[in-house]
Amino acid sequence: MHCPFCRFPDSRVVDSRTADDGSQIRRRRQCPDCGRRFTTIETASLTVVKRSGVTEPFSRTKILVGVRKACQGRPVSEDQLALLVQRVEERIRRQGNAGVDAHAVGMAILGPLRELDEVAYLRFASVYQSFEALEDFESAIALLRAAREPVGTEPVARTP
To answer: Would you say residue 155 has pLDDT above 70?
Structure first.
């Protein structure tokens, strides 16, 4: 680690602590040349492998933008969206891989989004899973309804 003050090519770690719920390490360092101290924050890098084979760094912002679009006009707060993005990242990092498939990222989003807002879930799923016909929506809605109903009960017929 180069000293940011004198550019000396080495530094000594004075103190290390975990930060941000253990996903980062905060280190206090001291330059042996000029004696000045500075702080570094270290995170494990995570890359996303796209369908085309291209890799790019994992981006919480990209997930937030996509989920925000799905939740547009829904009663969902920015805090709820931020928490959802954090849950998605934690789920992906728990897998323990430095590189994750883009499909796995989408799958990790679907579960928490379904819990947050079913309409937003359908919007996101329709784009992510490439719904092509009305039947795709109908089957997704049927799955949502089936998950809502207690086991052993018949769905109640509703009259218009």
So the answer is: no
